[in-house]
Design a protein that fits this description.
This protein is of the alpha+beta class. β9 and β10 form a beta hairpin. The protein contains eight helices and 13 strands. It is globular and about 60 Å long. It folds into two domains: 96 residues, Aminopeptidase, CATH 3.40.630; 151 residues, Aminopeptidase (3-Layer(aba) Sandwich), CATH 3.40.630. Strands 1, 2, 3, 4, 5, 6, 7, 8, 9, 10, 11, 12 and 13 form a 13-stranded mixed β-sheet that branches. Bound molecules: coenzyme A (COA). Coenzyme A binds next to β4, α3 and α4.
Length: 281
């Protein structure tokens, strides 16, 4: 019999098994972050007591992101994904969330469309091994963020994404303080970048900023992580970021479809140089 219940830290092994089966990149730390950011906001599907599916939600005021929709291959196509998403949406509706968003894979799209999500934008996932920089640094000075930069980065993020993702940015910065890089003075921050390790690649992002800061932050990441395999989720509209990743030899391996349900959130994707991955946006 199928049951759906809130996901806890004890269910992370189920999540990790499904991530590995799907070939996704998330580590235990990603599950912990998602569950910590939204206690009671993740759900696990059980078939006769065995975990076979997951979904997480992360709420930022009136906006929420849904992520980690995974169903065991052996049980797909029998309504488990629909049941998980329905439960997640019921929970968000009960909390008064107005806009629900997600970045969909082709496998998820038909279900989401059926549940009222509409396509809003696309992001191209670039992957590859970073070769050593060619000695051409970005035009702006990039430095490691200090404490006063955190609030400035959160404000910049809020302005560009139309969402107060402060809890997420704070958590990512806490987890990887050395990976928190900025351009500009904290009073006038022009851009920031965060990154984190993954199962098969380092996820570079979020990276948000203006036309000077974005390329400089990406160039800085390139030299810091030279030799590593990386992933960048780049909005298709950010042509300059796409070109930069292409010039580094990274390949666009798949497209993620950003979808929304409810009032569209006003975000300026031209200021996103790399998205933040599954938590979201
Ligand atoms: C996407 C995923 C979670 C769907 O889970 P699922 O349990 O198979 O989904 P359901 O059985 O509830 O199907 C829901 C809908 O998806 C569509 N669907 C499911 N399997 C399908 C298939 N083989 N071909 C076409 N459409 C299909 C149908 O529209 C179905 O609607 P229906 O209920 O009217 O039949 C699952 O395929 C999965 O884990 N994929 C790998 C990870 C992934 O890509 N996750 C999505 C991230 S955005």
């Amino acid at each position: 019999m199928l049951g759906i219940r809130p996901m806890t830290i004890e269910d992370i092994p189920v999540g990790r098994r499904l991530v590995a089966q799907a070939g996704w990149n998330q580590l235990e730390a990603d599950w912990r972050r998602l569950l910590d950011l939204q206690p009671g906001g993740g759900f696990v599907a059980e078939l006769d007591g065995v975990g076979v599916g997951t979904v997480t939600t992360c709420r930022f005021g009136p906006v929420a992101w849904v992520a980690m929709m995974l169903v065991d291959e052996a049980h797909r196509g029998s309504g488990i994904g629909r049941a998980l998403m329905t439960r997640a949406l019921e929970s968000l509706d009960a909390q008064g969330v107005s806009s629900v968003r997600l970045d969909a894979t082709p496998l998820g799209r038909p279900l989401y469309e059926d549940l009222g999500f509409v396509a809003e934008a696309t992001l191209d996932r670039h992957r590859g091994i970073l070769s050593p920089a060619d000695g051409t640094p970005g035009e702006a000075r990039v430095r490691t963020a200090g404490h006063p930069d955190l609030e400035a980065a959160i404000a910049l993020d809020r302005e560009a994404t139309g969402t107060d993702r402060g809890r997420l940015i704070r958590r990512l910065a806490d987890e990887q303080p050395d990976a928190f890089r900025v351009v500009g003075e904290s009073g006038r921050l022009r851009g920031f970048l965060l990154s984190r390790p993954g199962a098969s690649a380092r996820q570079i992002g979020p990276c948000l900023g203006d036309d000077l800061a974005g390329p400089a932050l990406l160039a800085d990441a390139r030299s810091r992580y030279a030799g590593e395999t990386v992933i960048l989720d780049i909005p298709t509209v950010n042509v300059a970021a796409q070109a930069l990743a292409g010039s580094w030899g990274l390949r666009a391996e798949r497209v993620l479809l950003r979808m929304g349900r409810g009032p569209r959130v006003a975000e300026d994707l031209s200021r996103t140089w790399a998205g933040s991955g599954p938590e979201k946006g």
